[in-house]
Structures are given as C-alpha cells and as structure tokens.
C-alpha cells in the first residue's frame, strides 16, 4: 500500500482571512459613514447689531405685519411704505423663525414695489 502525500492548499485559507480582515476594517469605519454623522452641522452663532434702517417691518408667526409698530395688511404695504422711503432709506424686516418662506418673499416683493432698495433682515427666535 502506498501512502498518498498530504497536500495542504493554503491559498483558500489566506483568501478567507484576507476577506475577514477587509470586513473588520469596513465595520470599523461604519459609524463615520452614517448619514446622520456625515450631515451633522454646527452653525456658528453671530452677534447681530441693530440695523440702521429708518423703517421697521415686523412679521410674526401668524403672518401679522406691522409697519413702525402699526398693523398693516400685506396688500396695503407697498402703498403705506412708499411715502416713508427716501433716497437710501433702509427697511429693516424682523420676522419670527416660524414664518413661512412665501410670506417673507411676499413682504420683500411689496418693499421692492414701494421703491425700497436696501432691506436688512433679522430673525427672531
């Protein structure tokens, strides 16, 4: 009886351990690749200064508008604002953070129609 020599093929075993090492490396980097951490942004807080605008527009979260402290309707804003604007007079718009974007755009459009060239925008918490 002749004995057959034992042949040990190590190539599949090396391939298996290389795949395990690659899998371990990918798992170690997994928390950094999550979208929650990748999109986490800490915005800087700015120190604002009081604007030099001569005309003050206030817009609250319910959409109520006030011109220099007096209530005014959005449709009447351009007409009420035009006599207050002189050459170079700035308009300061202070709006609550929860005001819908469309309302702010409508107010800015009314300021433009009234002849406002410079608008300062402030956001209240």
TrEMBL record:
Keywords: Cell membrane, Membrane, Protein transport, Transmembrane, Transmembrane helix, Transport
GO molecular function: transmembrane transporter activity
InterPro entries per the UniProt record, alphabetical: ExbD (IPR003400)
Record carries keyword Transport: yes
Residue stretches spanning the membrane: 6-28
Location in or out of the cell: Cell membrane
GO biological process: protein transport
GO cellular component terms given for this protein: plasma membrane
Domain of life: Bacteria
Protein's recorded name: TolR-type transport protein
Species annotation: Thermus parvatiensis
Lineage: Bacteria, Thermotogati, Deinococcota, Deinococci, Thermales
